[in-house]
Amino acid sequence: MTEHLPAIQVMIPIVGSLLIMLIRNNTLNWLIGVLSCLSVVFCSITLYSKVAISGAISYAMGGWEPPVGIEYRIDELNALFIVMISLASCIIILYAKNSLNNEIRANKISVFYSMYLLCLAGLIGILSTGDAFNAFVFLEISSLATYIMISIGQDKRALVAAYQYLIMGTIGATLYVIGVGLIFVITGSLNLVDIASRINDIELMRPLYASLAFITVGIALKIALFPLHAWLPNAYAYSPSVGTAFLASTATKVAIYLLLKYLYLVFGYNIIYSNPLFMIVIIALSLAAMFGASIIAIFQSNIKKLFAYSSVAQIGYITLGLGIANYNGLIGSTVHIINHSIIKAAIFLAIGCVVYKTKETSIKKLAGLGRTMPLIATCLTISSISLIGVPGTVGFISKWYLVLGAIEQGWWLVVISLAISSLLALIYVGRVIELIWFHEPEKNIIVIKEKLPKEMVIITIILTLATIYFGIDIRLTADLAKVAVENVLLAGDIL
Protein backbone atom coordinates (compact mmCIF):
# COMPACT_ATOMS: atom_id res chain seq x y z
CA MET A 1 0.00 0.00 0.00
CA THR A 2 2.88 2.39 0.69
CA GLU A 3 3.78 2.46 -3.01
CA HIS A 4 0.43 4.18 -3.67
CA LEU A 5 0.97 6.96 -1.10
CA PRO A 6 1.58 9.69 -3.76
CA ALA A 7 -1.97 9.13 -5.05
CA ILE A 8 -3.54 8.34 -1.66
CA GLN A 9 -2.46 11.64 -0.11
CA VAL A 10 -4.37 13.48 -2.86
CA MET A 11 -7.43 11.23 -2.75
CA ILE A 12 -7.96 11.34 1.03
CA PRO A 13 -9.03 15.02 1.18
CA ILE A 14 -11.11 14.62 -2.00
CA VAL A 15 -13.05 11.73 -0.44
CA GLY A 16 -13.35 13.70 2.81
CA SER A 17 -14.71 16.68 0.88
CA LEU A 18 -17.39 14.54 -0.76
CA LEU A 19 -18.39 12.92 2.56
CA ILE A 20 -18.82 16.33 4.17
CA MET A 21 -21.17 17.52 1.43
CA LEU A 22 -23.25 14.35 1.85
CA ILE A 23 -23.45 14.36 5.67
CA ARG A 24 -24.01 18.07 6.41
CA ASN A 25 -23.50 17.82 10.17
CA ASN A 26 -21.10 20.52 11.33
CA THR A 27 -19.56 18.66 14.26
CA LEU A 28 -19.22 15.38 12.37
CA ASN A 29 -17.86 17.23 9.34
CA TRP A 30 -15.21 18.91 11.48
CA LEU A 31 -14.14 15.45 12.67
CA ILE A 32 -13.98 14.22 9.07
CA GLY A 33 -11.83 17.23 8.23
CA VAL A 34 -9.50 16.59 11.16
CA LEU A 35 -9.14 12.87 10.35
CA SER A 36 -8.51 13.65 6.68
CA CYS A 37 -5.80 16.18 7.52
CA LEU A 38 -4.17 13.84 10.06
CA SER A 39 -4.13 11.06 7.45
CA VAL A 40 -2.47 13.38 4.93
CA VAL A 41 0.15 14.35 7.54
CA PHE A 42 0.93 10.65 8.08
CA CYS A 43 1.21 10.05 4.33
CA SER A 44 3.41 13.09 3.75
CA ILE A 45 5.85 12.29 6.56
CA THR A 46 6.06 8.65 5.43
CA LEU A 47 6.76 9.76 1.86
CA TYR A 48 9.42 12.23 2.98
CA SER A 49 11.14 9.49 4.97
CA LYS A 50 11.13 7.19 1.93
CA VAL A 51 12.49 9.90 -0.36
CA ALA A 52 15.22 10.83 2.14
CA ILE A 53 16.39 7.20 2.21
CA SER A 54 15.92 5.99 -1.37
CA GLY A 55 15.70 9.14 -3.51
CA ALA A 56 12.95 10.46 -5.79
CA ILE A 57 9.78 8.40 -6.24
CA SER A 58 8.05 8.13 -9.62
CA TYR A 59 4.42 6.97 -9.52
CA ALA A 60 2.66 6.22 -12.83
CA MET A 61 -1.09 6.87 -12.69
CA GLY A 62 -3.21 4.01 -14.01
CA GLY A 63 -0.18 1.97 -15.01
CA TRP A 64 0.58 4.30 -17.95
CA GLU A 65 4.32 4.90 -17.74
CA PRO A 66 5.68 8.42 -18.25
CA PRO A 67 6.06 10.37 -20.44
CA VAL A 68 2.85 9.01 -22.02
CA GLY A 69 0.84 8.79 -18.80
CA ILE A 70 0.46 11.18 -15.89
CA GLU A 71 3.30 10.89 -13.38
CA TYR A 72 3.42 11.86 -9.72
CA ARG A 73 7.03 12.58 -8.85
CA ILE A 74 8.10 13.06 -5.22
CA ASP A 75 11.59 14.36 -4.44
CA GLU A 76 13.29 16.12 -1.52
CA LEU A 77 11.93 19.52 -2.57
CA ASN A 78 8.22 18.86 -3.03
CA ALA A 79 8.16 16.23 -0.25
CA LEU A 80 9.33 18.94 2.18
CA PHE A 81 6.60 21.31 1.02
CA ILE A 82 3.92 18.60 1.16
CA VAL A 83 4.82 17.98 4.81
CA MET A 84 4.63 21.73 5.46
CA ILE A 85 1.24 22.12 3.74
CA SER A 86 -0.27 19.06 5.43
CA LEU A 87 0.92 20.13 8.91
CA ALA A 88 -0.38 23.68 8.39
CA SER A 89 -3.78 22.41 7.22
CA CYS A 90 -4.03 20.01 10.18
CA ILE A 91 -3.13 22.64 12.78
CA ILE A 92 -5.53 25.20 11.30
CA ILE A 93 -8.50 22.81 11.09
CA LEU A 94 -7.99 21.82 14.73
CA TYR A 95 -8.40 25.53 15.51
CA ALA A 96 -11.32 26.01 13.12
CA LYS A 97 -14.43 24.62 14.84
CA ASN A 98 -15.37 27.43 17.22
CA SER A 99 -13.90 30.16 15.07
CA LEU A 100 -16.13 29.22 12.13
CA ASN A 101 -19.18 28.87 14.41
CA ASN A 102 -18.52 32.44 15.50
CA GLU A 103 -17.80 34.00 12.10
CA ILE A 104 -20.07 32.37 9.50
CA ARG A 105 -23.62 31.07 9.28
CA ALA A 106 -24.23 27.52 10.46
CA ASN A 107 -25.60 26.39 7.07
CA LYS A 108 -22.35 27.39 5.35
CA ILE A 109 -19.89 25.71 7.71
CA SER A 110 -20.11 22.29 6.03
CA VAL A 111 -19.47 23.94 2.66
CA PHE A 112 -16.39 25.63 4.10
CA TYR A 113 -14.99 22.35 5.45
CA SER A 114 -15.63 20.65 2.11
CA MET A 115 -13.89 23.41 0.16
CA TYR A 116 -11.04 23.43 2.68
CA LEU A 117 -10.29 19.76 1.99
CA LEU A 118 -10.79 20.19 -1.75
CA CYS A 119 -8.32 23.08 -1.76
CA LEU A 120 -5.86 20.96 0.23
CA ALA A 121 -6.18 18.17 -2.36
CA GLY A 122 -5.49 20.64 -5.16
CA LEU A 123 -2.42 22.06 -3.41
CA ILE A 124 -0.92 18.62 -2.74
CA GLY A 125 -1.71 17.66 -6.32
CA ILE A 126 0.22 20.68 -7.65
CA LEU A 127 3.19 19.71 -5.51
CA SER A 128 3.05 16.04 -6.47
CA THR A 129 2.36 16.00 -10.18
CA GLY A 130 5.05 15.72 -12.80
CA ASP A 131 2.70 16.67 -15.63
CA ALA A 132 2.35 20.27 -16.85
CA PHE A 133 -1.36 20.08 -17.73
CA ASN A 134 -2.24 18.08 -14.61
CA ALA A 135 -0.63 20.90 -12.59
CA PHE A 136 -3.14 23.27 -14.26
CA VAL A 137 -6.03 20.97 -13.31
CA PHE A 138 -4.99 20.90 -9.66
CA LEU A 139 -4.32 24.64 -9.75
CA GLU A 140 -7.92 25.22 -10.83
CA ILE A 141 -9.30 22.77 -8.25
CA SER A 142 -7.54 24.63 -5.44
CA SER A 143 -8.49 28.03 -6.88
CA LEU A 144 -12.19 27.21 -7.28
CA ALA A 145 -12.33 25.94 -3.70
CA THR A 146 -10.54 29.11 -2.56
CA TYR A 147 -13.06 31.39 -4.29
CA ILE A 148 -15.87 29.73 -2.35
CA MET A 149 -14.02 29.86 0.99
CA ILE A 150 -13.47 33.59 0.54
CA SER A 151 -17.07 34.27 -0.52
CA ILE A 152 -18.44 32.57 2.62
CA GLY A 153 -17.23 35.48 4.79
CA GLN A 154 -20.12 37.38 6.43
CA ASP A 155 -18.99 40.79 5.17
CA LYS A 156 -20.67 41.60 1.86
CA ARG A 157 -17.28 42.67 0.52
CA ALA A 158 -16.24 39.00 0.68
CA LEU A 159 -18.24 38.38 -2.50
CA VAL A 160 -16.44 41.20 -4.29
CA ALA A 161 -13.08 39.89 -3.02
CA ALA A 162 -13.90 36.39 -4.29
CA TYR A 163 -14.97 37.83 -7.66
CA GLN A 164 -11.74 39.84 -7.95
CA TYR A 165 -9.72 36.73 -7.23
CA LEU A 166 -11.83 34.76 -9.72
CA ILE A 167 -11.06 37.24 -12.51
CA MET A 168 -7.35 37.50 -11.71
CA GLY A 169 -7.04 33.75 -11.15
CA THR A 170 -8.73 33.00 -14.47
CA ILE A 171 -6.35 35.32 -16.30
CA GLY A 172 -3.39 33.68 -14.59
CA ALA A 173 -4.63 30.19 -15.41
CA THR A 174 -5.21 31.15 -19.05
CA LEU A 175 -1.70 32.53 -19.41
CA TYR A 176 -0.30 29.38 -17.80
CA VAL A 177 -2.20 27.11 -20.21
CA ILE A 178 -1.00 29.13 -23.21
CA GLY A 179 2.57 28.67 -21.99
CA VAL A 180 2.04 24.94 -21.51
CA GLY A 181 0.52 24.72 -24.99
CA LEU A 182 3.61 26.34 -26.50
CA ILE A 183 5.85 23.89 -24.63
CA PHE A 184 3.78 20.98 -25.96
CA VAL A 185 4.08 22.27 -29.54
CA ILE A 186 7.83 22.74 -29.14
CA THR A 187 8.69 19.50 -27.33
CA GLY A 188 5.74 17.19 -28.01
CA SER A 189 5.49 16.32 -24.30
CA LEU A 190 3.66 17.37 -21.16
CA ASN A 191 5.80 15.39 -18.71
CA LEU A 192 8.02 17.91 -16.93
CA VAL A 193 11.06 15.63 -16.65
CA ASP A 194 10.73 14.70 -20.33
CA ILE A 195 10.35 18.36 -21.31
CA ALA A 196 13.51 19.23 -19.37
CA SER A 197 15.47 16.58 -21.30
CA ARG A 198 14.17 17.78 -24.69
CA ILE A 199 14.58 21.52 -24.14
CA ASN A 200 18.36 21.39 -24.52
CA ASP A 201 17.97 20.11 -28.12
CA ILE A 202 15.71 22.98 -29.21
CA GLU A 203 17.27 25.40 -31.68
CA LEU A 204 14.50 28.02 -31.95
CA MET A 205 14.66 29.86 -28.63
CA ARG A 206 12.06 32.54 -29.27
CA PRO A 207 8.96 30.30 -28.80
CA LEU A 208 10.66 28.76 -25.76
CA TYR A 209 11.13 32.19 -24.19
CA ALA A 210 7.52 33.03 -25.07
CA SER A 211 6.29 29.95 -23.20
CA LEU A 212 8.50 30.89 -20.24
CA ALA A 213 7.00 34.40 -20.22
CA PHE A 214 3.40 33.12 -20.29
CA ILE A 215 4.02 30.57 -17.53
CA THR A 216 5.93 33.02 -15.34
CA VAL A 217 3.30 35.77 -15.56
CA GLY A 218 0.47 33.26 -15.08
CA ILE A 219 2.03 31.87 -11.90
CA ALA A 220 3.01 35.39 -10.76
CA LEU A 221 -0.71 36.24 -10.68
CA LYS A 222 -1.32 33.21 -8.48
CA ILE A 223 1.46 34.09 -6.04
CA ALA A 224 0.40 37.77 -5.97
CA LEU A 225 3.80 39.04 -7.07
CA PHE A 226 3.78 42.84 -7.09
CA PRO A 227 2.18 44.52 -9.10
CA LEU A 228 -0.11 41.54 -9.85
CA HIS A 229 -1.29 41.38 -6.23
CA ALA A 230 -4.59 43.29 -6.43
CA TRP A 231 -6.71 40.27 -5.49
CA LEU A 232 -4.84 39.33 -2.31
CA PRO A 233 -5.53 42.14 0.25
CA ASN A 234 -9.32 41.93 -0.01
CA ALA A 235 -9.26 38.12 -0.16
CA TYR A 236 -7.35 37.99 3.12
CA ALA A 237 -9.31 40.81 4.76
CA TYR A 238 -12.85 39.52 4.19
CA SER A 239 -12.36 35.76 4.26
CA PRO A 240 -13.17 34.00 7.57
CA SER A 241 -10.11 34.05 9.83
CA VAL A 242 -9.55 30.31 9.36
CA GLY A 243 -9.63 30.76 5.58
CA THR A 244 -7.20 33.68 5.77
CA ALA A 245 -4.73 31.67 7.86
CA PHE A 246 -5.01 28.68 5.53
CA LEU A 247 -4.52 30.71 2.35
CA ALA A 248 -1.67 32.77 3.78
CA SER A 249 0.24 29.73 4.98
CA THR A 250 -0.33 27.39 2.03
CA ALA A 251 -1.80 28.61 -1.28
CA THR A 252 0.73 31.21 -2.40
CA LYS A 253 3.59 29.01 -1.16
CA VAL A 254 2.55 26.15 -3.45
CA ALA A 255 2.36 28.50 -6.46
CA ILE A 256 5.89 29.71 -5.67
CA TYR A 257 7.06 26.09 -5.67
CA LEU A 258 5.52 25.64 -9.12
CA LEU A 259 7.44 28.68 -10.38
CA LEU A 260 10.65 27.38 -8.81
CA LYS A 261 10.10 24.01 -10.45
CA TYR A 262 9.72 25.50 -13.92
CA LEU A 263 12.71 27.79 -13.56
CA TYR A 264 15.18 25.21 -12.29
CA LEU A 265 13.88 21.74 -13.10
CA VAL A 266 12.11 22.30 -16.43
CA PHE A 267 13.70 25.20 -18.31
CA GLY A 268 16.95 24.96 -16.36
CA TYR A 269 19.36 27.48 -14.93
CA ASN A 270 21.40 27.89 -18.12
CA ILE A 271 18.39 28.83 -20.23
CA ILE A 272 16.73 31.02 -17.62
CA TYR A 273 19.76 33.07 -16.68
CA SER A 274 21.53 33.12 -20.05
CA ASN A 275 19.63 36.38 -20.57
CA PRO A 276 20.44 38.86 -17.74
CA LEU A 277 17.16 40.66 -18.41
CA PHE A 278 15.17 37.90 -16.69
CA MET A 279 17.23 38.20 -13.52
CA ILE A 280 16.93 41.99 -13.58
CA VAL A 281 13.13 41.82 -13.93
CA ILE A 282 12.74 39.31 -11.09
CA ILE A 283 14.94 41.34 -8.74
CA ALA A 284 13.25 44.63 -9.70
CA LEU A 285 9.75 43.23 -9.06
CA SER A 286 10.92 41.65 -5.79
CA LEU A 287 12.33 44.95 -4.53
CA ALA A 288 9.17 46.74 -5.67
CA ALA A 289 7.12 44.27 -3.62
CA MET A 290 9.33 44.65 -0.56
CA PHE A 291 9.11 48.45 -0.61
CA GLY A 292 5.76 49.16 -2.27
CA ALA A 293 3.67 46.69 -0.27
CA SER A 294 5.41 47.62 3.01
CA ILE A 295 4.70 51.33 2.47
CA ILE A 296 1.04 50.58 1.70
CA ALA A 297 0.84 48.38 4.81
CA ILE A 298 1.92 51.32 7.01
CA PHE A 299 -1.26 53.24 6.14
CA GLN A 300 -3.80 50.42 6.50
CA SER A 301 -6.65 50.74 9.00
CA ASN A 302 -7.71 47.06 8.86
CA ILE A 303 -5.32 44.68 10.62
CA LYS A 304 -6.03 41.83 8.19
CA LYS A 305 -5.27 44.10 5.24
CA LEU A 306 -2.11 45.32 6.92
CA PHE A 307 -0.76 41.80 7.21
CA ALA A 308 -2.09 40.96 3.73
CA TYR A 309 0.12 43.67 2.23
CA SER A 310 2.88 42.36 4.47
CA SER A 311 2.43 39.00 2.72
CA VAL A 312 2.90 40.68 -0.65
CA ALA A 313 6.16 42.16 0.66
CA GLN A 314 7.28 38.78 2.04
CA ILE A 315 6.59 37.16 -1.33
CA GLY A 316 9.07 39.71 -2.66
CA TYR A 317 11.72 38.28 -0.31
CA ILE A 318 11.05 34.78 -1.62
CA THR A 319 11.28 35.77 -5.29
CA LEU A 320 14.37 37.86 -4.53
CA GLY A 321 16.22 34.64 -3.72
CA LEU A 322 15.19 33.29 -7.14
CA GLY A 323 16.70 36.40 -8.71
CA ILE A 324 19.91 36.15 -6.69
CA ALA A 325 20.09 32.60 -8.07
CA ASN A 326 22.98 31.20 -6.08
CA TYR A 327 23.19 28.57 -3.35
CA ASN A 328 22.47 30.84 -0.37
CA GLY A 329 19.88 32.86 -2.26
CA LEU A 330 17.83 29.75 -3.03
CA ILE A 331 18.18 28.50 0.54
CA GLY A 332 16.84 31.88 1.68
CA SER A 333 13.85 31.56 -0.67
CA THR A 334 13.10 27.95 0.26
CA VAL A 335 13.39 28.42 4.00
CA HIS A 336 11.34 31.63 3.84
CA ILE A 337 8.49 29.72 2.22
CA ILE A 338 8.46 27.52 5.33
CA ASN A 339 9.12 30.28 7.86
CA HIS A 340 6.60 32.69 6.39
CA SER A 341 3.99 29.93 6.49
CA ILE A 342 4.58 29.58 10.25
CA ILE A 343 4.58 33.34 10.87
CA LYS A 344 1.40 34.11 8.95
CA ALA A 345 -0.50 31.15 10.42
CA ALA A 346 0.41 32.42 13.91
CA ILE A 347 -0.55 36.02 13.10
CA PHE A 348 -3.89 35.31 11.44
CA LEU A 349 -4.94 32.75 14.06
CA ALA A 350 -4.14 35.31 16.77
CA ILE A 351 -6.28 37.81 14.85
CA GLY A 352 -8.98 35.12 14.67
CA CYS A 353 -8.97 35.01 18.49
CA VAL A 354 -9.39 38.79 18.58
CA VAL A 355 -12.28 38.63 16.11
CA TYR A 356 -13.90 35.88 18.21
CA LYS A 357 -13.96 38.15 21.26
CA THR A 358 -14.52 41.60 19.72
CA LYS A 359 -15.77 41.15 16.13
CA GLU A 360 -13.28 43.90 15.26
CA THR A 361 -10.49 44.09 12.66
CA SER A 362 -10.01 47.87 12.81
CA ILE A 363 -6.52 48.62 14.11
CA LYS A 364 -7.63 51.68 16.07
CA LYS A 365 -10.30 49.71 17.91
CA LEU A 366 -7.73 47.15 19.02
CA ALA A 367 -6.04 49.74 21.22
CA GLY A 368 -5.33 48.39 24.70
CA LEU A 369 -5.61 44.77 23.60
CA GLY A 370 -2.65 44.01 25.84
CA ARG A 371 -4.86 44.72 28.86
CA THR A 372 -8.05 43.02 27.71
CA MET A 373 -6.45 39.96 26.02
CA PRO A 374 -2.81 39.90 27.22
CA LEU A 375 -1.99 36.33 26.13
CA ILE A 376 -3.25 36.77 22.56
CA ALA A 377 -1.67 40.23 22.38
CA THR A 378 1.67 38.67 23.35
CA CYS A 379 1.31 36.00 20.66
CA LEU A 380 0.45 38.62 18.05
CA THR A 381 3.43 40.74 19.11
CA ILE A 382 5.97 37.92 19.02
CA SER A 383 4.83 36.54 15.67
CA SER A 384 4.69 40.06 14.19
CA ILE A 385 8.26 40.98 15.12
CA SER A 386 9.42 37.85 13.30
CA LEU A 387 8.40 39.63 10.08
CA ILE A 388 11.04 42.25 10.82
CA GLY A 389 13.76 39.63 11.02
CA VAL A 390 14.67 40.05 14.68
CA PRO A 391 17.46 37.60 15.67
CA GLY A 392 16.04 34.59 17.51
CA THR A 393 12.97 34.40 15.26
CA VAL A 394 12.38 32.48 12.03
CA GLY A 395 12.26 35.69 10.00
CA PHE A 396 15.93 36.34 10.76
CA ILE A 397 17.06 32.98 9.34
CA SER A 398 15.52 33.64 5.91
CA LYS A 399 16.91 37.15 5.62
CA TRP A 400 20.35 36.00 6.75
CA TYR A 401 20.63 33.59 3.83
CA LEU A 402 19.32 36.22 1.39
CA VAL A 403 21.94 38.69 2.63
CA LEU A 404 24.67 36.04 2.24
CA GLY A 405 23.50 35.31 -1.30
CA ALA A 406 23.47 39.00 -2.26
CA ILE A 407 26.95 39.52 -0.76
CA GLU A 408 28.30 36.56 -2.74
CA GLN A 409 27.02 38.22 -5.92
CA GLY A 410 28.53 41.54 -4.83
CA TRP A 411 25.12 43.20 -4.86
CA TRP A 412 25.47 45.58 -1.94
CA LEU A 413 22.51 47.66 -3.09
CA VAL A 414 20.30 44.57 -2.58
CA VAL A 415 21.78 44.11 0.91
CA ILE A 416 20.97 47.73 1.76
CA SER A 417 17.45 47.26 0.33
CA LEU A 418 16.90 44.25 2.59
CA ALA A 419 17.86 46.35 5.61
CA ILE A 420 15.63 49.29 4.62
CA SER A 421 12.64 47.05 3.88
CA SER A 422 13.05 45.51 7.34
CA LEU A 423 12.85 49.02 8.82
CA LEU A 424 9.59 49.57 6.91
CA ALA A 425 8.29 46.35 8.45
CA LEU A 426 9.34 47.73 11.84
CA ILE A 427 7.17 50.80 11.20
CA TYR A 428 3.92 48.97 10.43
CA VAL A 429 4.49 46.27 13.03
CA GLY A 430 5.55 48.89 15.58
CA ARG A 431 2.36 50.82 14.92
CA VAL A 432 0.26 47.77 15.81
CA ILE A 433 2.37 46.94 18.88
CA GLU A 434 2.16 50.51 20.15
CA LEU A 435 -1.63 50.53 19.91
CA ILE A 436 -1.94 47.15 21.57
CA TRP A 437 0.33 47.85 24.55
CA PHE A 438 0.60 51.61 25.06
CA HIS A 439 -2.92 52.94 24.43
CA GLU A 440 -6.06 52.86 26.53
CA PRO A 441 -8.75 50.39 25.40
CA GLU A 442 -11.54 51.87 23.29
CA LYS A 443 -14.59 52.57 25.44
CA ASN A 444 -17.16 51.53 22.83
CA ILE A 445 -15.61 48.12 22.12
CA ILE A 446 -17.85 45.22 23.06
CA VAL A 447 -15.84 42.26 24.36
CA ILE A 448 -17.95 39.13 24.81
CA LYS A 449 -17.65 37.57 28.26
CA GLU A 450 -17.39 34.03 26.90
CA LYS A 451 -13.86 32.68 27.25
CA LEU A 452 -11.81 31.88 24.20
CA PRO A 453 -12.03 28.16 23.37
CA LYS A 454 -8.96 26.35 24.68
CA GLU A 455 -7.99 24.83 21.33
CA MET A 456 -7.87 28.28 19.70
CA VAL A 457 -5.58 29.62 22.43
CA ILE A 458 -3.34 26.53 22.58
CA ILE A 459 -2.80 26.36 18.82
CA THR A 460 -2.07 30.09 18.62
CA ILE A 461 0.51 29.72 21.41
CA ILE A 462 2.11 26.67 19.74
CA LEU A 463 2.55 28.49 16.43
CA THR A 464 3.89 31.58 18.20
CA LEU A 465 6.45 29.48 20.06
CA ALA A 466 7.34 27.84 16.74
CA THR A 467 8.37 31.24 15.35
CA ILE A 468 10.96 31.38 18.14
CA TYR A 469 11.96 27.71 18.32
CA PHE A 470 12.68 27.39 14.60
CA GLY A 471 14.57 30.66 14.74
CA ILE A 472 17.01 28.99 17.15
CA ASP A 473 16.94 25.32 16.12
CA ILE A 474 17.06 25.29 12.30
CA ARG A 475 17.40 21.54 11.79
CA LEU A 476 13.80 21.07 10.63
CA THR A 477 13.71 24.21 8.47
CA ALA A 478 16.99 25.54 7.08
CA ASP A 479 18.86 22.22 7.19
CA LEU A 480 16.08 20.39 5.34
CA ALA A 481 15.81 23.33 2.93
CA LYS A 482 19.53 22.93 2.19
CA VAL A 483 18.98 19.30 1.21
CA ALA A 484 16.07 20.31 -1.03
CA VAL A 485 17.98 23.18 -2.64
CA GLU A 486 21.03 21.02 -3.31
CA ASN A 487 18.72 18.67 -5.17
CA VAL A 488 17.32 21.53 -7.25
CA LEU A 489 20.72 23.07 -7.91
CA LEU A 490 22.30 19.78 -8.91
CA ALA A 491 19.44 19.29 -11.40
CA GLY A 492 20.13 22.79 -12.72
CA ASP A 493 23.89 22.15 -13.12
CA ILE A 494 24.80 25.07 -10.86
CA LEU A 495 26.98 23.13 -8.42
Task: Describe what you observe in this structure.
By secondary structure, the chain is mainly α. The chain has a domain at 276-495. 78% of the residues lie in helices and 2% in strands. It has 20 helices and two strands. It has a two-stranded antiparallel sheet with strand order 1-2. Helix 3 runs antiparallel to helix 19, helix 9 (231-238) crosses helix 13 and helix 14 runs antiparallel to helix 19. The longest helix has 32 residues, at 327-358. The radius of gyration is 22 Å and the shape is globular. The two termini are 37 Å apart. The relative contact order is 0.09. The mean pLDDT is 85.
Briefly characterize the structure.
By secondary structure, the chain is an all-alpha fold. The protein contains 20 helices and two strands. The chain has a domain at 276-495.
List the helices and strands in order: HHEEHHHHHHHHHHHHHHHHHH
Rg, alpha carbons = 22 Å
Spatial separation of the terminal alpha carbons: 37 Å
| Gross geometry | globular
Side by side, the strands of the main sheet go 1-2
The profile of the biggest β sheet is: 2 strands, antiparallel
Helix content: over 70%
**Beta fraction:** under 5%
Total helical segments: 20
Structural class assignment: mainly alpha
Number of separate strands: 2
Low-confidence stretches: none
Arithmetic mean pLDDT? 85
